[in-house]
Amino acid sequence: MPLVEVTLTEGRAPEALRELIHRVHAAVESSLGANPQSIRVIVREVPRTHWAAGDQTLAERDAAQSAAAPAEPSTEHTTEHTTAPPSQEGD
C-alpha cells in the first residue's frame, strides 16, 4: 500500500490541492503499477508561522522581505513644468 505525504504551507485553493492529489495518485499508479484503491495520499498544510528554516519562520522571512522591498510608486499625479526658451524680442 503506497503512502505519499506532501507537506505544504497553507493557503492554496482547494481545487489546486485536489489537482495535486490526483496527479500524485496517477504518478504512483503508473510508475509502480499499484492498485489504485491501495494508494494513499496525505496533504498536510502548515501555517507559515509553524514552518522555519534557518531559525526563522516563513512568516518572519515574509515580513523581513516586505520591509526591505522598495516602496510602491506613488499613484499621485504629478505635473511636469517646462520653461519656454527666452523670447528673442528686439532683434
UniProtKB/TrEMBL annotation:
Residues 60-91 are annotated as: Disordered. It comes from the Bacteria. One of its GO terms (molecular function) is isomerase activity. Signal peptide: none annotated. Residues 81-91 have a biased composition (Low complexity). The keyword Disulfide bond does not apply. Keywords: Isomerase. Pfam families: Tautomerase. Belongs to the 4-oxalocrotonate tautomerase family. This is 4-oxalocrotonate tautomerase. It comes from Intrasporangium chromatireducens Q5-1.
